[in-house]
């Protein structure tokens, strides 16, 4: 408390000197990473009281990221800002509070982020609505958040540079839903409603600055571009309606190459398209053709290396192979190898407390499937959570009858089993070999995999 109440007066202005510090309650690691554009600038270690402090002799104004594994959040620095953050890892996002010079802007970003997340939990049901009802619903939701944005902008009086980030947080969440709607509606209901969309439905695209390198690694921007490319590709009459087809994804690469001229931004978007495709398609011939086109367009050596590693991991998950060994624990924290417990056809599904609506929906879906397919074992594997968050989520919902496991190290399971999409499903044969390593629990045809 004393740290938070006094932090406004301990720093002085000096060129581009800035301070970043704070306190981590229930730390999961011994340090905090400070990053710019996904590159680590500094590793800041916690002291015996779980506090940290770092002086930057020169810190350019802009958007940064701080990470305390496995969680991260954004922090915005203006010249001479000196910020303290306090958070509890048991409820990371909801507990983040900033104080110091620049705290109002950052607390605004956190508030708006949490409002967007709360709205995201409700948005899936809106995709089932007709066009008029859908637009009315999302416009009403947007108006509430825009009012909050305008009020705080007037109170705080931030500059134009910060407003780029603030507006991005506000706008991209809204227009992302607009881009998802046409294909999500068809996916969920079977109805193609594109012809019923108003003539000005996509006017928002004209307002998006695809060349703005300031937003290159800002997740609201990346999410929007990803779903927009998907939507544009699926509008092509000659393309497969399967969004994960080779043709659609090569089309996304080509659209990116044409649409975005800034090579830094282009590389990030190309990398995201490649990442998403390789996690869905297990056709080895398709993968090779896709990789060839991706490598022709990207110029980022690190991205090339990362995508090549994922490509190789995907190769290891082809039908008939066994899963690479991953360190898992059961609810008694007993270590186990999943390959040693498979004695019947098995479905592995994944969840995290950070996507609570998916956690609940996936468990409810599996409960229904258990009754229909008793010959199958269904195993839930928690990823990207600490032990406490995992146990608290299980206690809160109390889904009985489903075997619950926890991945000890998220990075290992992410790389070895290529788990970067939470709706991913792995189906195993009774002998433990892979039957389908890239299924989707919420695909309307999912049950065909179980017959």
What is the helix tally? 13
- Enumerate the spans where pLDDT stays under 50 for 5 or more consecutive residues: 1-6
Number of strands: 15
In round numbers, the mean pLDDT is 88
What can be said about the biggest beta sheet?
7 strands, mixed
Helix content: 40-55%
Calculate the terminal CA-CA distance, rounded to whole Å: 59 Å
Amount of beta strand: 15-25%
Radius of gyration: 23 Å
Broad shape:
globular
Q: Decide which structural class fits the backbone.
A: alpha+beta
Listing every helix as H and every strand as E from the N terminus to the C terminus, the arrangement reads HEEEEEEEHEHHHHHHHHEEEHEHEHEE
Strand order of the largest sheet: 10-9-13-12-11-14-15
Question: How would you describe this structure in keywords?
Answer:
alpha+beta; seven-stranded mixed β-sheet; 13 helices; disordered N terminus
Please give the structural blueprint.
Layout: H1 2-6, E1 18-25, E2 31-36, E3 39-45, E4 51-56, E5 62-68, E6 71-77, E7 82-88, H2 92-95, E8 97-101, H3 103-126, H4 131-156, H5 160-189, H6 219-235, H7 246-259, H8 263-278, H9 284-297, H10 301-316, E9 328-330, E10 335-336, E11 346-351, H11 356-372, E12 377-382, H12 387-397, E13 403-407, H13 410-416, E14 424-428, E15 434-440
Parallel strand pairs: 1-7, 11-12, 12-13
Antiparallel strand pairs: 1-4, 2-3, 2-5, 5-6, 7-8, 9-10, 9-13, 11-14, 14-15
Helix pairs in contact: 3-4, 3-5, 4-5, 5-6, 6-7, 7-8, 7-9, 8-9, 8-10, 9-10
């Amino acid at each position: 408390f004393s740290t938070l109440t006094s932090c406004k007066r301990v720093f002085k202005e000096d060129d581009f000197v800035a301070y970043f510090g704070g306190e981590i309650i229930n730390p999961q690691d011994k340090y905090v990473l400070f990053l710019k554009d996904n590159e680590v600038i500094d590793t800041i270690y916690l002291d015996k009281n779980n506090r940290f402090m770092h002086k930057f002799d020169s810190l350019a104004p802009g958007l940064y990221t701080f990470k305390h594994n496995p969680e991260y959040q954004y922090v915005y620095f203006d010249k001479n800002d000196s910020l303290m953050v306090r958070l509890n890892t048991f409820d990371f996002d909801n507990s983040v509070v900033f104080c110091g010079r620049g705290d109002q802007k950052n607390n605004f970003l956190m508030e708006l982020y949490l409002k967007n997340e709360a709205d995201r939990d409700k948005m899936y049901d809106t995709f089932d609505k007709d066009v008029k009802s859908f637009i009315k619903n999302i416009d009403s939701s947007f108006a509430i958040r825009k009012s909050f944005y305008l009020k705080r902008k007037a109170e705080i009086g931030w500059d134009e540079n910060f407003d780029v980030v603030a507006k991005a947080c506000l706008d991209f969440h809204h227009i992302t839903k607009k881009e998802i709607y046409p294909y999500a509606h068809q996916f969920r209901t079977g109805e193609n409603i594109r012809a019923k969309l108003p003539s000005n439905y996509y006017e928002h695209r004209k307002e998006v600055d695809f060349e703005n390198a300031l937003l290159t690694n800002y997740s609201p921007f990346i999410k929007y571009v990803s779903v927009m490319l998907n939507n544009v590709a699926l509008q092509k009459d000659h393309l497969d309606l399967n969004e994960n087809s080779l043709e659609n994804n090569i089309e996304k690469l080509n659209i990116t190459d044409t649409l975005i001229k800034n090579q830094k931004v282009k590389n990030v978007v190309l990398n995201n398209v490649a990442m998403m495709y390789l996690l869905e398609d297990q056709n080895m011939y398709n993968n090779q053709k896709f990789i060839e086109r991706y490598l022709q367009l990207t110029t980022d050596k690190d991205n090339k290396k990362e995508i090549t590693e994922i490509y190789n991991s995907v190769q290891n998950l082809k039908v008939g192979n066994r899963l690479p060994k991953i360190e898992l624990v059961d609810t008694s924290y007993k270590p186990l190898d999943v390959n040693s417990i498979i004695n019947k056809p098995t479905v592995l599904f994944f969840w995290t407390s950070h996507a609570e609506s998916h956690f609940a929906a996936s468990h409810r879906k599996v409960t229904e499937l258990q009754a229909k397919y008793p010959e199958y074992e269904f195993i839930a594997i928690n990823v990207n959570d600490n032990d406490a968050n995992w146990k608290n989520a299980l206690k809160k919902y109390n889904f009985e009858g489903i075997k619950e496991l926890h991945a000890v190290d998220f990075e290992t399971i992410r790389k070895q089993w290529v788990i970067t999409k939470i709706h991913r499903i792995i189906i195993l044969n009774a002998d433990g070999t892979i039957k389908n390593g890239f299924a989707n629990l919420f695909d309307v045809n999912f049950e065909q995999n179980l017959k």
